[in-house]
């Protein structure tokens, strides 16, 4: 396909990656945001989010002239072949997706989009949103297309440029094929379908992953009760190609900016369609139960009572490789610990500044000073390489709770500490 004039609205994880990557494969891209300060930083090549390769791609796009940043979508949209909506769709009242940003942008640009220009939702939106946007637009000459995004934070650029698949759906199939063609350079398989199916793919995929994680967390709990080892169990499961190895790692519960809101949204979508999605509700409940079990494990490690316990936290981001704290399970655990009176010191290689209920430090060893327990909450590789002998010297107590099964227990034990993982025997 020849280069297209693309507008990307929203310059967060999804929008900035989309804009920079589409520019890198030859399209002429204008990125738009409401945050004027952010736009100014991006126009100067400064990228706030931690995503490998993204700042370089933005720099190259700016230098080539194929990428630019502006405030306000109207002028840009007036000269576009396609407009991508990459704005937030957070959890709204009662768990449903809040579509106000999607609707606001539609209203902002609805009368200036040229005839034939595709309006494309990359934001995760409930089934029926394409129809809703068409109604809001009140125009039959602007095709509305769903093109959900599957990138993962921490590997956003690589995921965008080497996707497992591209999903595009519209009730205007020619427009859907045109949008799929924007990715021709990527040589990825594409699924071109109707709007409702494309919208549902994203929720179906994310909720499947959340359910898989809840399942493995429940199996880890069974391992502890039955004297089995989750590492051996998941290895045995993962060799089965019908199951696969990914998303088989137990942890402190799933979180991040997508899985919690998308699982709640799909239960609401199902409810509105008259279907009680009990399986998905159970996965959500299991996630809360997992966090409660982690809290109980930490309380047990400090002698039963969290009040006044000094606890060092390693990791705050919702997963390694990102500085995103949105719906981080580490923060969820920390807030319950703090509510029970624990004194928290925390370190994360990608997170600084002030956070409620804890002191954030910039050295992992500082969390151990005077601590009764050290708890690993995010699977940063650098925690594996810590000097546990030195940590043990700094600590008051001897408990290490490893909610990611990240550490080599032997190294922790050899330092004179105890180690507890998830779904594994406690070692002291
Ligand atoms: P984000 O919060 O990182 O970024 C959203 C951006 O949109 C912000 O810069 C904000 O200022 C801007 N914005 C808000 N309202 C706007 C408006 N009216 N006009 C212009 N800009 C506006 O969000 P994100 O993580 O990139 O997620 C965006 C969408 O993509 C969501 O629907 C999310 O569910 C979906 N998604 C996210 C991921 C992910 O890993 N983060 C992956 C796949 C899909």
From TrEMBL:
GO terms for molecular function: UDP-glucose 6-dehydrogenase activity. It is an enzyme of class 1 (oxidoreductase). Its EC number is 1.1.1.22. Pathway: Nucleotide-sugar biosynthesis; UDP-alpha-D-glucuronate biosynthesis; UDP-alpha-D-glucuronate from UDP-alpha-D-glucose: step 1/1. SUPFAM superfamilies: 6-phosphogluconate dehydrogenase C-terminal domain-like (SSF48179), NAD(P)-binding Rossmann-fold domains (SSF51735), UDP-glucose/GDP-mannose dehydrogenase C-terminal domain (SSF52413). It comes from the Bacteria. Keywords: NAD, Oxidoreductase. It holds the Pfam family UDPG_MGDP_dh. It catalyses: UDP-alpha-D-glucose + 2 NAD(+) + H2O = UDP-alpha-D-glucuronate + 2 NADH + 3 H(+). NCBIfam families: NDP-sugDHase. This is UDP-glucose 6-dehydrogenase. It comes from Amycolatopsis magusensis.
